[in-house]
Design brief:
The chain is α+β, with helices and mostly antiparallel strands. It has five helices and 24 strands.
């Protein structure tokens, strides 16, 4: 029995010695080494990106207004044309003849009116003397009124003939780029012949896009007038091309739709931008960035410092502790990625320092050692 008790005491003393060594080793274990970085505060323009399509401000189909043989085409297909530039000429001889005939009718009507006026004035002098009866004078009055009406009718025919003659010259209604011609010289054209060619304006152009109902409310689009005034001046439009490059000219919102699309739940919007070099063409796909003109200060951090679990995104922030700094968890709300890192909307302050390396060894509330920076090592 004594031997058994002695062995038990010896084993107990060995266990106590081992536990003491473990506790001493735990106290002497080095704290986790981490790299720390101050949050970065940068000026930033709040923005939102949408898929859009370029549209022409003016887009028209050129058609014939009168019937006749096409005499000449005065443009090169695909070229830029100016407002009022002659595009087509329709054989004008028949219309010139109509104008000449209408002018002759007007001259005849003027002559008849002159005679009616003379007869009326003569009868007006003879009526008091009893040389003509009242009925004869009434006939002279009616003839004068009829001559005046005939002159007006003939003048209207002359105006109509002149309009028809002017339609033999088809001119560009605005400046833009013209398409290919659907007819050739010598073809018989008429209003029923269809489209002769098309013309689109290219400077400026529209960028059409849609935003959701939620974004319309969150971005305050209700304050924007449909004509481009009011709060529109606080927002500028940047157009991004298919190759990722930004278009050199900024745009301006000039249209807000008046109803929500029931199929998509979006509302139509449109911006207008200068396009002096015709780099943007109707139908072209672009990305439309809406951004505030005024910059605001935002907090950014490296993306590698952000961790995610069931509670969401979080970072480890360095705070003061007893004897050594302590790592503390902070839940954050992330924004978009920018050149300096990722924007943090909430959860961090401007004077916070975050842990960027050594995160796998750190837990919330744990004391840590700070790894010296390269400049500090050099010193």
């Amino acid at each position: 029995m004594r031997k058994k008790l002695l062995l038990t005491a010896l084993a107990s003393s060995m266990i106590l010695v081992g536990c003491g060594q473990d506790a001493q080793n735990a106290q002497q274990a080095p704290l986790p080494l981490v790299a720390v970085q101050d949050v970065n505060v940068i000026p930033h323009q709040q923005s939102k990106s949408y898929i859009g399509r370029i549209e022409a401000v003016e887009d028209t189909a050129i058609t014939a207004q009168v019937s006749g043989y096409l005499q000449n085409r005065h443009f090169k297909e695909g070229q830029m044309v100016e407002k009022g530039q002659l595009l087509y000429t329709i054989e004008p001889s028949s219309f010139e003849a109509q104008v000449a005939s209408a002018k002759a009718s007007v001259a005849q009507a003027n002559a008849n009116l002159k005679k009616a006026e003379l007869d009326f004035n003569r009868g007006k002098n003879l009526l008091p003397k009893g040389s003509i009866s009242q009925s004869e004078f009434d006939a002279l009055t009616a003839a004068l009124l009829g001559a005046q009406a005939q002159l007006e009718a003939n003048q209207a025919q002359l105006n109509s003939a002149n309009v028809q003659l002017s339609h033999t010259r088809i001119e560009a209604p605005f400046a833009g780029r013209i398409s290919d011609s659907k007819v050739s010289t010598g073809d018989l054209v008429s209003p029923s012949s269809g489209v002769l060619t098309t013309l689109v304006s290219l400077d400026p152009v529209h960028a059409a896009f849609s935003i959701s109902e939620r974004e319309r409310l969150s971005l305050g689009m209700d304050r924007i007038e449909g004509d481009g005034s009011s709060d529109t001046d606080r927002v500028e439009v940047q157009i991004i091309l298919e190759n990722g490059e930004a278009f050199e000219h900024l745009g301006k919102l000039d249209f807000l739709g008046n109803r929500i699309n029931l199929n998509t739940g979006t509302i139509a919007m449109r911006a207008i931008a200068d396009n002096p070099h015709q780099q943007l063409l109707p139908g072209q796909h672009v990305r439309v960035n809406l951004r505030d003109k005024q910059e605001i200060d935002v907090v950014t951090i490296p993306r590698r410092a952000v961790q995610t679990d069931l509670e969401g995104d979080f970072v480890m922030v360095l705070v003061e502790g007893e004897g050594a700094p302590v790592a503390e968890r902070r839940n954050i709300e992330m924004g978009r990625q920018v050149e300096g890192g990722v924007i943090v909307h909430s959860g961090l302050e401007k004077d916070d320092a975050i842990i960027t390396q050594g995160l796998q060894r750190v837990r919330n509330g744990m004391s840590v050692r700070i790894q010296p920076s390269a400049s500090e090592k050099a010193e």
